[in-house]
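Posting this for the archive.
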Amino acid sequence: MNILRLHDLKKNYNGTYVLKGINLVIDEPQIIGYIGPNGAGKSTTIKILAGIIDSFEGEATVLGMDVRKDALQIKQSIGYIPEQAALYDVLTPLEYLRFTGRLYQLPDAVIEKKSWELLRLFELDEKANMRMTGFSKGMRQKVLLISGLMHNPDIIFLDEPLNGLDANAVILVKEILAQLKQAGKTLFYSSHIMDVVEKISDRIVIINKGETLADGTFETLKADAARGSLENIFTALTGDEQHQTTAGAFVDVLKS
């Protein structure tokens, strides 16, 4: 059984295809770095796999289950941390985690124990009973990370999970992801932070305009592209190598 499989995955919005035939098979626990420019189709792919978007062409399975037919069962087995920390602001972190924990059918005693312990590890325990209306983006992101992981899922989909986090929290989350992988989890990780993707990923998939440009380990991609860093590989493959020129022109305008 494949952990995850995409076959000729396509998705169009109002006649415009944002995914044009993505093929991907994951057979063993690993961290997949899924990267591409804005509008490449990264978030759309993740939302399809997470059962949020059910209208698409091609095939998509998670843990051998069809995303179209078994969306609810799949959601019980996965964790999903979206790019935007859309929370119920009127709730406290503790109330929100109780709500999401019950959606995952966790016993109340387990929810209570995990909520307090995980909030403490993210240094949010003192704010556990405060309304989240005044929370910073980073604080909200921490609550979102906890809610997507507290049921100990087998597969975790992360769409820009480091957004808004401070430096210490970023380091902590990177270590959490590494240890989740060691624990046999599969992580499907989308981010614009190239150095993080380069360091934590076992396999990197680069897409652009809904199509796969590269798929392999960092060392393989580096050898194929003859480039020194993932950022340089990404720039070469996506066809935008004018950053230095554009930056120079930008600064020249500021000086004028």
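The longest strand covers residues 16-26. The first helix runs from residue 42 to 49.
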